[in-house]
Fold each of these.
Amino acid sequence: MSGIINSGSKALANDRISKRIKSAIRTDRIMTVVFSLVGGFFLALIIALAAYIIIKGFSGYYPGLLGFDSDGIGNQLFNTVYLVFLSLLISVPIGVLAGIYMAEYAGNGKLTKFIRISIESLSSLPSIVVGLFGYLVFILMTGMRWNLMAGSLAVSILSLPSITTTTEDSLRSLPKSLKSGSMALGATHWVTIVKVLLPACLPRIITGVILAAGRGFGEAAALLYTAGQSTHINWNNFDITSATCPFNPFRPGETLALHIWVMRTEGSLNPNSQEIADFSAAILVIMVLLFSLTARIITARISRKQLGNGKDKK
Amino acid sequence: MNNTEKEIQNKPSKTLINVDKLNLYYGAFQALTNISMDIYANRITALIGPSGCGKSTFLRTLNRMNDLEDNTKITGEVKLESTDIYHGMDAISLRKRVGMVFQQPNPFPKSVYENVAYGPRINGIRNKAKLDEIVEKSLRQAAIWDELKDRLHKSALGLSGGQQQRLCIARTLAVEPQVILMDEPTSALDPISTSRIEDLALELKKDFTIVIVTHNMQQASRISDNTAFFLLGKLVEYNVTETLFSVPQDKRTEDYITGRFG
């Protein structure tokens, strides 16, 4: 008799459990769909944006658009690459060294906390403010005219925090056993950092550098009053001190991003301004994508070399 | 303790490391109290005891790895061949003479070759032929040359746990230390890898002095010549292994060995 009653209540309990399980599975399936939709949305957004810009840019293409005169954007393209290169030259060494300091040498006191807050604030500064600061310090105070160097210094201010933070975070995320292993072999702290810890962080640091470079490619506001809006360069001039030599960093140089703005405002007197602006946008997007892709390939190669291709067979 | 010391010294061996009244503090907490013992050359000395008894902390005082932690204070003396390691030499030179193998294998994310060549390289050896020679010799000494000679330039992280640990031993050997400290080197490994490393230790003691921390008493009795039993930061008993395990002189040692605690 009791057997029948027990199995009855057991059946009820089982029923409740299976209802709960079914509901959990249903929720799981719904959320999987939601996440996939969100992911798909982002993918569609990026593809639509990139496709629209690139198609619009190339639809107005005329021969000479890539040229190096006032109808073409060749000079601006060169300026952009050169400026990003210069700004990385400044911000990567300083940023990496700062990141090393924060991760390996700084204590936990008030000063360190203050430094950390400063770095974080630096990265949220509005770029036009940085540009005006750059104008004040690099142009007015030095008495120079608008130049690429001032522009790259301004961009460095903006990209420095992200490189510092990336370096510091990736160093901190390494297992402590790596440092112990190296120090136990009689290596000094500095040698350990340079020969073991930094190489182990290389993939993540490269990613941080891509982000910094991306900032430089797209920066416009910070360059308005530092690098300037004009470009007069003579590709036959190899005298690096001359104002028209392409490789002189102390000459004014308009970048692609700024060129788009100029073409849509002051430069609209140029009959081709619309096509130039659209094409500049397309080229900019393609360059950023290419840069990102190349850096990812390099990162993957380094990662593979460090970690092996997965476990060997025993 | 006197009889014990005589017994150990009857086996012909010189004292390589002399520890005298060593105390270690982590901040206000005293982790080691008044440790005095001699470690003999070309012998395997095992440090046993329950978790938290200070055996790993003591091991790390022998190559000054405790210096890497904040807020540690040491009183007393540790001498390597009559030179005080805390006041008579710098930590860098010390660690080239006293190497360490850790509980979790920790190869660098580099190739096998680069892992072993790391030590010699930072000691200034640049000649490729010399490095090749050192790498091969160290891998042979660690009994892992045959397994790895065809994949020297592949990443060390692709190896199994046991292979990684033997690689770490080879990496330590490449610096040609006098002493090898092993902090529970086999506790993360399977029985076969464990026995390989135990055989390796027995081989290595011909050329090196080994101090091994182990929580596995069978391991201690299998491979060590002398055993020290630690409890709550104190050295309770230190004797020839056979004697300590068969006729322990302190009741606490007896309790630990027979499994009454720990």
Note: Residues 128-141 of chain B form the longest helix (14 residues).
Amino acid sequence: MLRRYEMYSLDPAAPPAAVRSLADAFLACGRFIPEVLDSAIGTNLTDTPVRLVWEHAYESPEAYQRYMVHPFHACILDRALLADSPERVVTSNDFGAGLVGYACDGPVYRLPKGARRLVLLDLAGDDVGPLAARIAAHAADVDGLAVSIVTANTMGSAWMDGVTPITGRPPWSHLWEQGWESLDALEAYRDGDSPLAVAERSGWDGTPGVTVRRSASVHYKLKTG
Amino acid sequence: MTGYMVDTIQVRPSSLDTYLALVRDVAVPVMTKAGATFESCRATSPALGEDVDVQVTWSFADHVEWNEIRKNFVLDPAWHDLARRAAPLRTGGTRRFYYPVPDTVSGPVSQR
């Protein structure tokens, strides 16, 4: 499967109805393009310069490629997204997380309700294994953390066909996707002193072989169609 | 099936010449290089006391080709510069895709 996120900053001058239309189109996408699975949206609650998040998935690269050439994509979604469209409601930003995602064997990301958190990581190298192991060793002990996936951001550079990189290494090389039973549980983790929270606040100091140059996060209450 | 992307842009009459120059000198080369076909550029009169509609039409063979065109212009810094320069000239507008329809409507030719 391919797991995919699109994250947008919004034009403050955009008509609210047009922004709602875009959000509705994200949620409705799977009705028009059956290849689009598990669509959900959210409004980012962190100070990261991203507002509207659309998370979704595809069964395969072939399914993703059918999405890419579907008229709903070009006619409805891109109307509000492309930089040259007169109906654009989003803005360009240099945050570098417009499109991120990863390949997985199944819907490991799935979260029927609750809160999503996506931690964006810029690692000095490519091997996220030691960090993933460190997180996995403690994730099960964190109350309310239902989903925890640490992986490379492969979609950031392979957005054309889901497989082939067509641009260089993405600004955010790796992702830590989290699913929380509730926003309260997420906030309790962030404010708490669990080994994982402490390690995250430290910038993952002491993780052998891994240097996290910078990180950022978005989180939101999950809204499904 | 051939597709047509039709941008109908509103600009102030005082911005019309600047906008048309941007279409002619930047949009046509950038979009053509990406693979789109320039079909037409038409405008309403600037002498009517209202914003001018500028309608620019591009064509492409089908949505598979459009996806390739889209990739090409998104990766072209000149397209981003075009978008940055065009945005402040617009006061509104729409983007719609059109497709040929079956020839079931009697037009001037068949009425002769």
Note: The beta strands of chain A are 2-10, 37-43, 52-58, 90-91, 99-103, 115-123, 145-152, 174-180, 212-221, 223-224.
Amino acid sequence: MGVGIEVTNLNAWYGTNHTLQDINLNIPANHATALIGPSGCGKSTFVRCLNRMHETNPIARVTGTVRIGDLDIYNDIKPVEIRRRVGMVFQRPNPFPTMSIYDNVAAGLKLNGYSNRHVLDEIVEKSLKNSALWDEVKDDLKKKSGASLSGGQQQRLCIARALAVDPEVLLMDEPASALDPVSTAKIEDLIFQLKSQYTIVIVTHNMQQAARVAEKTGFFLNGRMVEFDSTHKIFTNPSDKRTEDYITGRFG
Amino acid sequence: MRDEHKLKARIRAGIDGAATGLAVLSTVLVVAPLVAIFIYLVYKGASSLNLDFFTKIPKPVGELGGGMANAIVGSAILLAVGSMIGVPIGIAGGIFLAEFGRGTKLANAVRFTADVLNGVPSIVMGIAIYSLVVVPTHFSGFSGGVALGVMMIPTVCRTTEEMLLMVPHAVREAALALGVPNWRSVLSITVKTASPGIITGCMLAFARVAGETAPLIFTAFGNSNWSTNLNEPMAALPLQIYVYALSPYDDWHRLAWAGALVLIVLILLAVSLVRYVTSRGVLKGAS
């Protein structure tokens, strides 16, 4: 089951560049939350702070608190452990090129020392079904490389890979921006189905996409969060002038 | 107007043809020396190849016949010892340079050392190992293996580093985002993804030292009898070729040619074998 995320006074830097400033927000459990905003506004940095991927860059720094469920992820837990609870899907599909489809999905478990074949088989099948890829790949799970799939299939493979470690939260950083419209629609359908089981945070450049998949939407601008509200309110009656300008296409 | 278009099209086609021709010519120039050497070796050496060559040890001066069995086995042992030293150290060094030490002073020092080591003439390497290993002990197969191993390290190290750096950042991030510890991600994901290139680097280093004579003169020393003991002087194909080629006897000259042919064929076979073994199990569509 998904858990809620509580962010208090979050600040982040890349070197001397203050990319996130005083972010406060509560992301509800088992819903999809969209983050929109122009390029470079800090929304990707924000999601990378939620699984501590931000700090894999040696010049990056973070202050503030992020609580996921009842865990303070910057104090109670090691980065590798939080990343097992908070899955991530990246902008460009990044399957492991030398691994089979099966091994791609099982990678998170295998690399953490899990080796019960029977259980692995079950988890791989369940994850591929959850990511709506099972029917397309079930015949050559171990024969084909993850890199041999089409872009849209690769992205669903990456979603299956993230689901296989049974996370509570799924972060998606522009998961459909490198895909064609048909593949995009499939990913969006998937988000719809997955949010009953996981808390989903999706960064997107595509405002229609935010409107289609998310209950809540946050608008980021220049490293600050301008507005966070129900998606319906953001797109029909935003409280802030800048949000209105952005969604009506006056800038960004 | 139309004529002008036709003329331009013809010029373009001409330039295109010329460029293609130059590319083909370059390819031929690259491959030609290898082919020429190989044909010449077959021409000079093939006639002296017989079963004795592969099964007998050299005959004393003045007697005809004999073979290089001891040198073939010796070379195999020396190269095995060299690879056991050079490949692990080189790969570990490359992993350090690309993954753990990036940007540190130590890494820069290691990289610089490897590049200088790569340029050290092989005879100098032989003298160095002579004073470090042979002087405290004595001439031995082991010291020859050490010399070859040390010569392999810089090539293996630098190619490993280059190949690891070519692995996309996104692949590393994917592993880290699954909660895989960094060391595990490096060993199981990055190194595995780069392994075809790393293997090529190892083969390059192997093929290079397989033909080295100079570092063995002061270390393995050569031996005209059977010697599989690493603690004693050991025969090696390049050494045997060197001694025979400089000798005044026609029969030995012929054997030297045959030895050179066998050496190059064995190197080709070893490299192809490794390629074949490591390419099995590569998946459809894997890049």
Note: The longest strand of chain A covers residues 17-27.
Amino acid sequence: MKKIEAIIQPFKLDEVKEALKGIGVEGITITEVRGHGRQKGHKEIYRGMEYQVDLLPKIKVETVIADSRLDDVTRTISAAARTGKIGDGKIFIYDVLDAIRIRNDDSGEAAL
Amino acid sequence: MPNQTLNSGDNAWMLTSAALVLMMTGPGLALFYGGLVRSKNVLSTMMHSFVLMAVVTVLWAIYGYSLAFAEGNPFIGGFSYLFLNGVGLTPNADYGATVPHQTYMIYQLMFAIITPALISGAFAERIKFSAMLLFTCLWSTIVYFPMAHMVWGKGGLLNAFLGGKIGCFDFAGGTVVHITSGVSALVCALYLGKRIGFPKEQMKPHSLVLSVIGACLLWVGWFGFNAGSAVAASALATSAFVATHFATAAAALGWMFAEWMRHGKPSMLGGISGAVAGLVAITPASGFVQPFPALLIGFLAGIFCFFMVTTVKSKFGYDDTLDAFGVHGAGGTLGALLTGIFATKAINDGLKDSAGKVLPLGWVDGNPGQILNQAIGVAIAWGLAIVGTLIILKIVDVLVGVRATNDAEIEGLDISMHGEEGYNLDA
């Protein structure tokens, strides 16, 4: 099994969710995060004091899938999340040791 | 028994004005200041305003009103009104001849409440709560009650209308409220020192939304502050209402345009800060000036206070957290001096000589010397604020310690002083 961690632009969340549902991926976890890669932030000014904001709001999408689906899922996420500009985000892939369904103790790919 | 001279229109307006001025403190100032601090300190900042609504009331009832408004000497009142003795429902000829004396008393109380609340902007996010309470009690007694007496009390040194030797025009409290609190705020900011991390660490307002709401409540409430100072539902009240509104509008634009030119974008915070600066500056002038001079006073205040809060503050590096000095101290000083220029008997014919002839007021009336009297009033306010506040801070520091510990400050005063959090959004 593989865990996919995708950091995407917040306004792309709906598209990515719909796209994943479209290929039958139903388990996802969403977190609101802040960060940056090469994307520059912006300047805010309060009463003459300047603040550089370079930690930008992003959305982290996490999902665990069967090994056989890896290419399909990463390509789907990329296509849905892409705008072509700096700041689109990144996808990281991890190995997963096991997965367990809490309701009934299913484990392995059956738990996904 | 109600007196025959009671005017129900006057009393209705004065009671309404008193409510409006209280609203300026709670929730006006509480929201305005609260939104500007970090979320871990929002309740503590609001508490500073709220608790004074309670504490100052008790001081006022027991001895505050007496020290401010009873007859005494030119500097402080006497004790004839202790425990509001003699302050009943019949009018006092000198303090609102057409409304119950208690109306005047309760109206003035709201001023006594908001004045120390303004100072809280300077020591927000790092003062110990017990110190703040003790400070306020001492400050009200040593600075506010005497200043209020000097400017508004019968026989007060600066009271142009009730026997003062150095007639200074301060319609609604430019010197009494804004200069004293603003200058005291600067002293507090210097004495307490900067917040941990200031100025390198980013400390953005956690909710400008709250601040905008607060500022708008201040704007509306200020009509009670200025127009109510006519102590009657009169033409003078109308004039003060109009002058107040015009100055505020011009000041908001002045600050916004100054910021637009300097930084390229006009900010919401700049707009509301400008508005407050205008409200402050027009306060002493509101019952004395024509509408278009009011516009000018406001516009100048917007630009001047913008300069004080941005250039001057960053140049000297003091941590006047919520710009109590930059807006109230500086704006009040500017307004008090400009009053000497634009005050006119065409608006306020209350100053008369012993023969009953109406006297000229400011420079526009051909009396440029008034500016000197205004400057004296300003100087007294500055002096009293500086000396009084320094002494009080020293006493409070020795007795309970003024500044919160580093741990308490970093954790946030809401938790360390009050055991609460402002936002439990996951609950």
Note: The interface with chain A takes residues 199, 202, 204-205, 259, 262-263, 265, 267, 269-270, 273, 306, 309-311, 313-314, 323 of chain B (CB under 8 Å).
